[in-house]
Design goal:
single chain, alpha/beta, UDP N-Acetylglucosamine Acyltransferase, domain 1, 9-stranded mixed sheet, 7-stranded parallel sheet, 5 helices, 21% strand
Length: 303
């Protein structure tokens, strides 16, 4: 009996919500000079009155239903998935890309290829996507558990034969921060945090180990240089010259506006001061400041 009452209560709430929505919509239409009955009839006949309408209705409804299930099913299992829309967009982008590339192939081959293509990337559990996040080349991007991409973040794994970008568990990419490649690779360890408006670029290989913090407006660069001895105009060069991979050790602090340039590296537990420019390797446990950055003290760390 109690279960029946709960079911009736839920049904009543659903009917009440739909009724209120229709009432408010009718009021809005009436205020703007549109007969509500005629508008509702047009909606019904356009959706159900022809085979084309039914196909369009099914197409749109299926997308909404599947996205809703992506949120509802984890919720029933005790998980809170707030990335349903982002997951839908990523899946659509990946599937569309392979569909365009195989436009001249039969449909029975394209659909399995889309599924395989989407599965090439990896997205962990409890990943959070902010507003206006841009993901490019998602099949080359791996996001660990608990990764947060804040509003306006860009993650772009561009390249012909690179592996792409891997963000470890609980990596935070702040607002308007850009993490991107030009045929390079980027590996970010767990618990790394990038504040707002940072730029992380690689045309070679950039590795950042775990538990480091990067303040706002920092710039990390592996490759991306131009050849000043080449008479070719700079605008026509690829801008991918490099002195070698860039590695940033564990538990580092990179201050606001600091820059770690191509060919430099930071050892474990390095603190790089605000506005500093590291153009050569900085030894472990150093506190470095200035342009170019030089060690001024030794940082104490736990044994």
């Amino acid at each position: 009996m109690r279960w029946r009452r709960m079911r009736m209560k839920r049904l009543s709430s659903l009917i009440l919500a739909m009724g209120m929505a229709l009432l408010l919509l009718s009021l809005f239409l009436w205020i703007n000079g549109y007969p509500p009955a005629r508008v509702f009839m047009a909606l019904i006949t356009s959706a159900w009155g022809s085979p084309t309408g039914l196909i369009l209705l099914g197409t749109k409804a299926t997308l909404l239903i599947l996205t809703g299930l992506a949120v509802a099913l984890p919720y029933r299992a005790g998980l809170f998935n707030i990335g349903g829309e982002g997951q839908f967009v990523l899946g659509a982008v990946a599937a569309s890309g392979i569909g365009i590339a195989m436009a001249d192939q039969p449909g029975w081959l394209i659909i399995p290829a889309m599924i395989v293509r989407i599965s090439n990337g990896h997205t962990g559990r409890k990943v959070v996507f902010g507003k206006n996040v841009t993901i490019r080349h998602p099949h080359k991007i791996a996001l660990g558990d608990g990764v947060v991409l804040d509003d306006g973040a860009v993650v772009d794994a561009k390249g012909a034969d690179n592996r792409g970008i891997a963000l470890g568990d609980r990596v935070y990419v702040g607002r308007n921060t850009i993490v991107y490649c030009k045929n390079g690779d980027i590996e970010i360890g767990e618990n790394v945090s990038f504040s707002a408006n940072c730029i992380v670029f690689s045309s070679n290989k950039l590795v950042m180990k775990k538990n480091s913090v990067v303040a706002a407006f920092a710039y990390l660069l592996s490759g991306g240089e131009y050849d000043l001895d080449d008479p070719t105009p700079l605008a026509l060069q690829k801008g991918t010259c490099t002195k070698g991979p860039l590695e940033i050790g564990e538990d580092c602090w990179i201050g606001a506006g600091a820059k770690v340039l191509d060919g430099a590296s930071l050892g474990d537990h390095v603190a790089l001061g605000a506005g500093a420019v590291a153009n050569k390797p900085i030894p472990a446990n150093s506190i470095a400041v200035g342009v170019p950055a030089r060690g001024i003290k030794t940082r104490k760390t736990a044994e």
